[in-house]
Specification:
Length: 429
Amino acid sequence: MEVDLFGLERFVTAQDSYDSYSSALREVKGGRKQSHWMWYVFPQIQGLGHTVTSHKYSIKSLLEANAYLEHATLGKRLREITCALPVHGDAERIFGATDAMKLRSCLTLFDIVSPDEIFADYLENYFDKERCQHTLKFVSSELSYYKNEDAFTRNGIKEVPRAFLEGIDGSKTLTYNNCLGTISDLLGRGETMRMLVSRHLWDKSDFSAYRISNLRQRILSYMRSIFQIIADNVKDDNLYREMNDIYARNKMSGDTQLLLTADSFDIFWKEHCHDTRVRTLFDTLIKDSLCRPVRGTGERIYNGLARPKYTPDAVSSLKADEVFVFGSNLQGYHGGGAARAALKRFGAIWGQGVGLQGQSYAIPTMQGGVETIKPYVDQFIAFAKGHPELFFYVTRIGCGIAGFTDSEIAPLFSDAIGIDNICLPESFI
């Protein structure tokens, strides 16, 4: 029995209503879509549509797409109706122009989740292998985290992740204190509980009640242990009530709320990790961590890896979780300077002037004065905060072709100073 972490039954309900799936299958076999079922039969990543229906039936993450394919009914039906398409057909003739775009988004999404399956074949036959760029952009950071070494391996841990996240399959010498210390250490190195759990589920492609229950109970165990240590050592009634409320609320929730339980853990950590009373206790726990000690002069450690204190003058290569932040123009004409380097080396997309693209992030700097750049810088900082799985190298944006000086641009990044996953040029500090 599988646990529905993402409310996937909404798709089953929609497909079964008025025999919609059977109608869709019949229309696809007949070579012409005639009724309205696209959103919940060929689901796409969120953001392609702006209606209530499109939002309700959008897929919010790669992990949700993975769960969709693993679902006993939905995965079987998606493969069945995809195979029902003519092997070589015209998507616009069968679906119409708008729904043909949705089909490409759907095929792109599930080809990422399950490569070398039928989805790749139909991307080739119907769209000449051209994937949906919106889908690729939306999932790029999550995919990067899944493709990189897992946090445990990256930090030199020999025990399997399951030993820490489920309390199963650890060696005889592994203690609970080792597990608690290791998890605490990983949080201090930039991981989050949601990231660790999501990566584990992605690797296992298993949403069974047994696994989900193990994960949730393990998080609750860590939560209870940490809260008890804090309560025993920090005399603060408000903090005690907060911890008691968090634990009680999550203990009462069901296994379907696993990811929300992980989020509760992360929110508490984020809000209190700079409280010296709490941080001191976490540092004590870390003494039992199995993570490889970090060393380095003039470096910072993020996600278990040594990073430079400041953005290097020249960035020629990136690790899997690193992003090159460059100055662009709104038209996305990446013809010179750092923009050209982003285009040639780091996945920048010609014609896209703003935001994440591959392992690069564009900030427009050539549309006017410094005041016109600030909104895009603020947008970038918010994006970086929301993506702790990535590490961002900010170049001297605006200080080349755009003609600004470091002293003009640096104040725009004042809010980025101290954010662990943003690396700034030394001249911006």
